[in-house]
Specification:
heterodimer, A: 397 residues, mainly alpha, 19 helices, 65% helix, B: 394 residues, mainly beta, Thrombin, subunit H, Jelly Rolls, 2 domains, nine-stranded mixed β-sheet, 5 helices, 25 strands
Chain lengths: 397, 394
């Protein structure tokens, strides 16, 4: 019995020793991995690995892990700066920027991002002599080196670029060009689908900066594209744009840009746009305002019950013998669209194949409205519109 | 029709008769010729307020291509849809009746927040490079169900190669009111290469058309057939020893954006915007530790790539041996599959079914695509059995 107990105890002890040894080896392995990892990260910069439990866990988690700037890319950036300082021609500038982009993409992303961020934080800048040009896949031209590098950072490390935009560019409001690039970064980093609260606030900040609005440059104009992505900003935009439409000759091009934005707002957020127009009928009453408002309602999709209601409400307000009614019925139903890339992406083309349904729905609606007492005063216009839609549909429509 | 104004007018007035001589002028098209290309695809456009211009049906039977400034009204606004009425292959002396035409559904125009005709006005080269519009009917064929051919890069064909060129349209402004040729279709043929005035806005001296020809198609004779290459947008006439010239907005990437947008609106999702092509010269063996390349040839798509899908069937004893890449006609290469080391396990064969391939968006689709399959490790071999590439454009 005693021998059995000894054997049993020895067995237990043996098992215990095996367990201890096993765990120890795991620890050593883990330590070795950690050391290796530490050695690796030390080649790139400081890695924050606290030995004691952190006192403020949230702050530690939010701490940015900074990597060392890639030295090769840093040198390339200095070379780029020197070449740009010589003010080469446009083709040479574009080539230099393309080449630098390729080098940046080829480098380690962490090091590349760090190199770009370091330059941006330095405050240095240089003109590229290019315009602010939006292409089909993002910006094609950047007026300054900083704008180019910020845009590039947005592609290499969207998180870092977004943080820099929110922490530095947006609050500073010192450059429309960098602000526009920052808005694009925020939009893309937010998923390029719905506006984030940060983007909304940043965009409103651009709209409400009076000196920028007074002398809009290309970057400011292009930034208006985000109005079509932020439905809650529709009232603010309409209020700001009304005086531009009222006196387009004094608006330094803002009236034309507004018309484009409004067209896109009707594609992307028709319900919110029509609602904002109806709730603020006191706006857009001067200059081009009534014609523009009429053209927007002329785009209403009458297969959507909400838009039908908005359209009817609009017609109930509209004097049938007024100029705005003439504008509306000239345009209705409006299926014209401007095509151009925007900072928030390509415009969305309405779905193919449904236009015939929309035209037929227009006919049905107008026929019904001819006998609607609340808008029967528009009946002569309805008759003309019905004839027009039948002509568009053709003999087989 | 807006005219260009050149510097050195006085000097040119002196020397024009000696330097330029008589310009190439438009000639009325004989009634019998209207039934053949490219006149068959030409027509008269009327917009609100009685503005008259020219247009053509090319690329698709529901389009009418023209110049944007015809769709731009006096009040600084783009014209409403009602304004675009199309009179296909009109060739009468009198102006057409309303009932002779077809009302179009709408149009697509180039716009930019900082660059558009409303900003620069209608007499600026910056405007003319964007002076293109794709009118469309969602419900009716605009040329009896037919459409003229086209070249992808109008600028290239109009500025190089010495191709025969022809402008068709209605230069009514050359005639006094009531002249029997006033509303006849005209043809202006020339062969000189055009000069680049600004980006896609091209110019040429020594050729003239006339007011009303705005929007008229500019065709190039390629492989014995007339193909659409751009639209006439400006010009000057040889009057009183002045020089003559034409200005053309050539078909370019931006123009294709309008065309493909209009096509989508007409419901055209056929061969112009989507195509599936089979892999050529298969099945083919994949030698051990070697590569094999097969091609897909894509043609006839308009616009730029919106999406690419690949179907692939490879028989191979070890899928992990395989590295597969796809290269576009422009040279962009995307890796679909990388080889995995021998010591890791791997299934046999490789089958891809409608696999989305990213990385080709906004590139031109037409040309030769190359699929390369590499056997990276020794011992196991196989064969590339079949494949197909589906490309969607916009």
């Amino acid at each position: 019995m005693r021998r059995s107990a000894i054997y049993f105890g020895a067995g237990l002890l043996f098992l215990l020793m095996v367990w201890v040894v096993f765990n120890q080896s795991q620890k050593q392995e883990g330590t070795a991995r950690s050391v290796d990892a530490k050695n690796q990260t030390s080649n790139h910069g400081t890695a924050s690995l606290p030995s004691d439990p952190p006192k403020d866990l949230e702050k530690e988690e939010a701490k940015v892990v900074l990597h060392a700037p890639d030295p090769v890319l840093k040198a390339e950036l200095q070379t780029l700066k020197s070449r740009l300082a010589q003010k080469p021609d446009r083709e040479t500038v574009l080539r230099l920027l393309r080449e630098f982009t390729q080098k940046a993409f080829a480098a380690n992303p962490d090091g590349a991002a760090a190199a770009l961020l370091e330059f941006l934080r330095s405050g240095e800048d240089l003109s590229t002599s290019l315009g602010f040009v939006v292409g089909e896949a993002g910006l094609d031209e950047w007026p300054t080196l900083r704008a180019f590098l910020l845009d590039l950072l947005g592609k290499i490390d969207p998180e870092m670029a977004s943080r820099y935009a929110l922490d530095t560019v947006i609050p500073a409001k010192s450059s429309t060009v960098e602000y526009a690039v920052s808005l694009q970064i925020l939009w893309n980093h937010g998923g390029a689908d719905q506006p984030t609260p940060e983007l909304t606030q940043a965009w409103l900040g651009l709209l409400q900066k009076p000196d920028w609005a007074a002398k809009p440059d290309a970057a400011w104009m292009e930034s208006l594209d985000f109005a079509s992505r932020i439905p809650e900003a529709a009232p603010a935009f309409l209020q700001a744009a009304s005086p531009w439409l009222a006196k387009p000759g004094e608006a330094a091009g803002k009236a034309e840009s507004t018309e484009m934005v409004l067209e896109r707002m009707m594609i992307r957020h028709p319900a919110e746009t029509l609602s904002a127009l109806l709730q603020n009928f006191q706006w857009m009453n001067g200059g081009r305002g009534p014609a523009v408002r009429a053209s927007l309602f002329a785009r209403a999709d009458v297969t959507d019950s909400g838009q039908v209601l908005s359209l009817k409400t609009y017609l109930q307000h509209l004097k049938p013998d007024g100029k705005e009614a003439e504008f509306f019925y000239q345009a209705f139903p409006c299926h014209n669209y401007g095509v151009a890339p925007g900072l928030s992406g390509q415009p969305d083309i309405p779905g193919a194949g449904d236009i015939q349904n929309m035209l037929h729905a227009d006919l049905v609606l107008l026929q019904a409205w001819k006998n609607d007492p609340s808008i029967v005063v528009h009946r002569p216009w309805f008759d003309q519109a019905i004839d027009k839609i039948k002509a568009i549909l053709g003999p087989n429509g | 029709m807006p005219f260009r104004h050149f510097a050195g007018l006085f000097l040119s007035l002196l020397i024009a008769p000696f330097v330029y001589g008589q310009p190439i002028c438009p000639l009325p098209v004989e009634p019998a010729d209207v039934g053949r290309s490219p006149y068959f695809y030409t027509g008269l456009i009327e917009t609100a307020g009685g503005y008259m211009g020219s247009g053509s049906v090319a690329v698709h039977p529901k389009l009418v291509l023209g110049c944007a400034h015809m769709n731009y009204g006096d009040n600084g606004a783009w014209l409403p849809a009602r304004a675009i009425r199309w009179f296909w292959k009109w060739n009468q002396g009198n102006y057409p009746e309303y009932s002779d035409g077809m009302m179009l559904t709408g149009y697509y125009y180039f716009s930019s927040y900082k660059t558009n005709v409303r900003k620069y006005g209608m007499d600026d080269s910056l405007t003319f490079q964007f002076d293109f519009v794709a009118n469309y009917s969602a419900t009716q064929n605009t040329a009896g169900g037919y459409a003229g051919g086209w070249v992808e890069d109008g600028k290239q064909y109009l500025t190089t190669g010495g191709f025969n060129k022809l402008i068709s349209g209605y230069p009514a402004g050359r005639y006094n009111e009531g002249d029997p040729n006033e509303h006849r279709m005209h043809s202006t043929e020339f062969s000189d290469n055009m000069d680049v005035s600004w980006e896609n806005y091209l110019g040429l001296d020594g050729v003239e058309t006339g007011p009303g020809n705005s929007g008229g198609p500019v065709w190039v004779l390629r492989n014995g057939e007339w193909a659409f290459a751009g639209v006439l947008v400006s010009g000057t006439e040889y009057l009183s020893n002045q020089w003559s010239s034409i200005g053309v907005c050539s078909l370019n990437k931006q123009g294709w954006g309008l065309i493909t947008s209009a096509l989508r609106r007409t419901g055209a999702t056929g061969d112009l915007l989507k195509k599936t092509v089979a892999l050529e010269n298969v099945p083919v063996a994949i030698p051990d530790q070697s590569s094999v390349g097969c091609t897909f040839t894509v043609s006839g798509l308009v616009g730029v790539i919106q999406g690419v899908k690949l179907n692939l069937a490879i028989n191979h004893a070890r899928q992990g041996d395989l590295a597969v890449t796809l290269r576009s006609p422009s040279g962009k290469t995307v890796t679909l599959l990388s080889a995995v080391v021998k010591k890791k396990s791997s299934r046999i064969n490789l089958t891809l079914s409608s696999k989305k391939v990213a990385g080709f968006t906004n590139l031109s689709p037409n040309g030769v695509w190359t699929l390369t399959v590499r056997d990276s490790y020794q011992q196991d071999v196989g064969s590339l059995q079949s494949g197909s590439l589906e490309i969607m454009t916009r």
